Amino acid sequence: MASLAFTPTPTPKLDLFHSKAKPTKSYNKVIRKPPHLSMPQIQYKNCQSNLQQSYFNTIFSLCGQGQIQAAFKILTEMDRRKIPIGPDIYGLLLQGCLYDRALFMGQQIHSRIIKIGDSLATNEYLETKLFIFYAKCHLFEVANKFFSRLSVKNVFSWAAIIGLNCRMGFYREALMGLCEMIDTGILADNFVVPNILKACAALQWISFGRGVHGYVVKMGFDRCVFVSSSLVDAYGKCGILEDARKVFDNMSDKNVVTWNSMIGSYVQNGFDVEAARVFSEMRLEDVEPNQVTLLSFLSASANLGAVEEGKQAHAIAVLGGYELDSILGGSILNFYSKVGLIKDAELVFGMMLEKDAVAWNLLISSYVQYGQVEKALDLCHLMRLENMRFDSVTLASILSACSIIGNIELGKEGHCYCIRNYLVSDLAVANSMIDMYAKCEKIADARHVFNSTMNKDLLLWNTLLTAYAELGVTGEVLKLFYGMQLESVPPNVMSWNAVILGFIRNGQINEAQDMFSHMQAVGIHPNLMTFTTLICGLVQNGFGNEAILVFQKMQECGIRANPSIIISTISACTDVASLQYGRAIHGYILRHDLLSTIPVATALADMYSKCGNIDQAKRVLV
Asked: Does a structural domain hold residue 436?
């Protein structure tokens, strides 16, 4: 491929394979290193005396040790003694400031250069040094001004401006910079390419990324572990996992960054099992995981509910001496919360050195999720004592807790807090408020919150739909159902489920069945909740035979029944005529190992008793 084509906007043609500059034989083999303070490579060309050389050596040594202040004092002494100071010394000092990100000291050196006059201020070498210094210090506007007036732009300056654009999130500008760089005859090296791949991943410009991959292979940069790791990461973030794995497998040398890129790619795309497998391979290769590895593996373990694997990651963190900061500690806390090990989550929370809002919210939401509402509210109180502000996530958890315990007064206090802190426009908070008011039987307040929320999403519509459906107010349910479609919010399966529930709660069984048929006609596939709502509703309203037919339909759809559906369907088999269906359900129970569930076994025994088969009922309970 000779050019990098990408969408959606047209860009200048980037010819990587036919640029003006031709790679030399040695270029493919050289891996550029950034300019370091290497004594044998630096010669002070303007040295006219041993004294000058001595000062130069001292400044060089101090800069190498990170003692910029001391080096600057030597510069002041040279100035006082009127010893000539050339561009090389100022460049040396700027390089030292760059390594330490000593912005203020670098600006002082810049001021000295300007005061001396154009002889230094317009020096090509110093202009480049100043540009790279400001670029590394993230002073975007200043760096851009320097870059625009550079008379000669080399690979170092291009690498700096492209890297700066990437760090600032200006990914399009970074890619346009590559295009211009290539057009001026300068080849991108293996320091530029990783930033370009980062930009491609951020913009999801996979075509551009593939072109860069071709350039990498042509120039021989695929032998560079950092470039190949960037390719794995870029393909992974674009969801092209097959290509990411091919690059990964073809790498002869892999470092921890490479492994992290592959594991992270799998986790980001929901392939948690594969991520865990790659982590195991990494351990077998004796590659020591770092904090980034553990963060990805903990996420995969949490998603899989893999308790032992997550505990292993925690143990590695402890043995590795990693501090439980807000990032790693929060990740471990998230794992224990997701797998339901609340006691372990509490211990991790207590040991965390830094607790940000994310950590507090994780434990609070875990308490709410597992019904420990009082603990959740106590932790919210403690959070306020620690002068931590409630954010939208905290408020959503508090409001959920209020809906569980039916504490309308506390819920109203939460609502007032949201108004005072401008959180009412947050959709997650609004949704929790609607749910809280509905469950506290304040449907009018729930509707008020709904009406006052701008830019309603599907979840918000469904929450209010379900609230009215629970009350059996089918008129309002249908108004909302058709109103959301007029607002260009297409209903999903949860919306249809709410309408079916509303009809059933109002005793409108025929209408519920019609809606069930209609949703399938328009291409919406019923899920487990749909069948649970309909079957249980049919049985409760005395439509046992219809419930059995719906159960059969569920089997045809390949949906596995839960205990609620099984108990309801069994209870519909109350006479000898329906016993054959009961026996079929008994077989289903045995095949899916559900007989150990006491309510299921009790319902089955009750069915056999009502059908006159007492012996079979006794055998079920044995």
From this structure: yes
Provide the terminal-to-terminal Cα distance of the chain, rounded to the nearest Å. Answer: 73
With tokens 């016993």, the residue in question is: 579
3-state class (DSSP) for residue 162 = helix
**For residues 206 and 354, what is the distance between their CA atoms, to the nearest angstrom?**
38
> Would residue 446 count as lying in a domain?
yes
Residue 3 dihedral angles phi and psi, to the nearest 5°:
-140, 160
Number of domains in the chain: 1
The DSSP string of 343-365 is HHHHHHHHH-S---HHHHHHHHH
Asked whether residue 433 is domain-assigned, the answer is: yes
Instruction: For residue 558, give both structure tokens.
Output: 């390949």
Q: What is the pLDDT of residues 433-458, one digit of tens each?
A: 999 999 999 999 999 999 999 989 99
Alpha-carbon dihedral 361, 363, 366, 371, rounded to 10 degrees: -110
- Phi/psi at 421 (nearest 5 deg)? -105, 15
Domain that holds residue 408: 390-454
Closest alpha carbon to 401 in 429, 425, 377, 366: 377
Helix (H) or strand (E) holding 500: helix 493-505
The residues that bridge with 15 in the sheet, in sequence order, are 3
**In one letter, which amino acid is 179?**
C
pLDDT at 500: 96
Domain assignment present for 419? yes
**CA gap 323, 348 in Å, rounded:** 11
pLDDT digits (tens, 9 = 90+) for 370-398: 999 999 999 999 999 998 999 999 999 99
Half-sphere exposure of residue 349, counting CA atoms within 13 Å on the CB side?
A: 24
Residue type, 49: S
Neighbouring-strand partners of residue 3:
15
Whether cis (ω within 30° of 0) applies to the bond prior to 8 is yes
The model's pTM = 0.74
Please tell me the distance from the alpha carbon of residue 606 to that of residue 603, in angstroms, as a whole number.
5
Crossing angle (nearest 10°) for helices 357-369 and 342-351: 160
DSSP string, 404-432: HHT-HHHHHHHHHHHHHTT-TT-HHHHHH
